[in-house]
Amino acid sequence: MTSQEIRQQFLDFFKSKEHLIVPSAPIVLKDDPTLMFSNSGMTQFKDYFLGYKEPKAPRIADTQKCLRVSGKHNDLDDVGRDTYHHTMFEMLGNWSFGDYFKKEAIDFAWELLTEVYKIPKENLYVTIFEGDASENLERDQAAYDFWKAHISEDRIINGNKKDNFWEMGESGPCGPCSEIHVDLRSEEEKAKTPGVQLINQDHPQVVEIWNNVFMEFNRKADGTLEKLPAQHVDTGMGFERLCMALQGKKSNYDTDVFTPLIAKVEELSGKKYEGILENEKDIAIRVVVDHIRAVAFAIADGQLPSNGGAGYVIRRILRRAISYSYRFLDMKEPFLYELVAVLKNQMGAFFPEIVKQEKLVTEVIKEEENSFLKTIESGLIRVEKLIQQTISETKKVLPS
Ligand code: GLY
User: Fold this and answer.
1) Which CA distances in Å does 303 have to 284, 313, 337, 373?
2) In terms of CB atoms within 10 Å, which of 115, 120, 144, 348 comes out highest?
3) pLDDT tens digits for range 6-25
4) Which residue from 44, 235, 241 has its CB within 8 A of the most atoms of ligand 1, so it is best to mutate?
């Protein structure tokens, strides 16, 4: 299955379960003082959970462009160094606004993963919230009982507040959550170490793919929890990780979400991607193909690189890509802008903003590359001069 088909099957499944399919909101948030970017699918629905606005429908599903590069959810340092974290990623989500709750959410998730996508049941594990006395929160026994109908009890794992109580930021809607993890290792590896021991242990092939949040609370600015006026469901499935699982790959970068971009970087740099975890060239290629998506979509959604706020975050991501490719791919001239056309061909059918804004995005990136490369070059000249000066001053004071 191609990534396009995988995305479409998710949307078709939830349409068949009476969900209204909506487009992704822009990646950049302009009217939420608590957040700069959409960091999950639910951000565009925050006011529905809080009861400030009426949702268009009680059931909604979509794929949302998300960016986790600042604030409570920040994966930037892992990007490139591992195979499954990203700055920008797509989050497939289904929502119930005061409609269905835990049972239906769990039943839908299980049906989609095992009957539609046909992920072998023996590769799946789930976690539930174990409770937290300091917050006066009980164990999520209801989720446990609903999971028991689908999966053996030794595959239902208790999780703590860090992993199983989801919050969008320092304040806002939140609630206990139940994650689904997939074990993509070989049978030989599974025989050596049972998957249950590797849940939430940062193993690259035993990863969380889907989080089902049961929104019941609002975290207020003073840190206390208050009950929401109704109970809701907020789910988020990592699209690129799902593609890895369904395409039989061991890394998100080996799926067709990334391979066309990697092929273009190989062509432009003359360097071959070997998929090695600790190889600097391969890290640089992963950084480049990840970061170009974040930067291109942020610009397409109206956030130009700049010296402050969200614009500065975007400029820093772009400069991280330039710096890695300068150091480890020997790319001393602008080239990242040439990846925008590849991205457009790959994602434009689903995200028309990248088609509409292709010219602007390409020009802005090229201009940023030019100016940052000049800064790097003049910095290096200054460093070289300082070295020469130090050497000649040292010669003067030392006896020959
Ligand atoms: N809002 C659910 C998640 O991001 O995991």
Assistant:
1) 24, 10, 16, 21
2) 144
3) 999 999 999 999 999 999 99
4) 235
